[in-house]
Design a protein that fits this description.
Blueprint: H1 7-15, H2 30-41, H3 47-58, H4 67-81, E1 86-87, H5 107-122, E2 128-132, E3 146-152, H6 162-167, E4 171-175, E5 180-183, E6 192-198, H7 202-215, H8 218-234, H9 239-245, H10 247-264
Parallel strand pairs: 3-6
Antiparallel strand pairs: 1-4, 2-3, 4-5, 5-6
Length: 268
Amino acid sequence: MTDALSRALAARLRVVGIDPDAPFGNGNSPWEIWLQLREHYGRRSTLIDLYQLEAARQAVALEALPAADRMRMKAAAMAVIYPGFSQAPGTHRAGESVDVVLYDPGWPHVFGRWRRRLTAALGPVAVRIEHVGSTSVPRLAAKPVIDVQVSVSDLGDERSYLAPTESAGLVLRGRDDSHLFFLPPAGTPREVHVHVCPAGGPWERDHLLFRDYLRASPGAVAGYAGLKQRLAERWHDDRTAYTEAKTGFILDTLDDAERWAAVSGWRP
């Protein structure tokens, strides 16, 4: 069975007391094993681990795992990965592949247009509007979708920002305990993602720190670009898996960024 699992996953299984050569003994299911891994490793045990476990149980290659099984596992896992997770019905955009392209110097201008639109819609409710994500980092390859982070004083006061954000031409796609996620409606270009989060909270800080560290670290940019392009090829039909597969790099980079912030005096 070990040959069916990555070395990293096999090592993690041993740490939590599960034999990677026979992980499903004692009636263990992939889901139950993954929950043990999440309890021990937190965010570093990703949806990809759950996919691997299910593929091993079915004795198929990871790439051969049926799409229906991946959808089932994603639906269950998202509430664990993002506590409080829910999605708005009727907002799924089917058939969109993961495409990573070279950096486009026009991306900051697209952000500027959306910032003006959101500023007009939200007024003082938007404490801060920032360009985050890969398109905010010069020379970094990215999916051609602008990530906009809107910070508000009270995430729980949805009346103050939900309808105004939608009035800018967006629909609420999902929410969790940390933020709300908006995007253009189905049938229109996926030009932007808007993330509404609490001002001064960990969601806001992590995204700003990750962005600013990458802007100051050409080596990290090159490594991240290569990873993104490889993952886009492997998970071209699974946007969630593509995002989850970047988790280890992002967490490692945030650790480096915290050290950089302490030395440089960075503040969000």
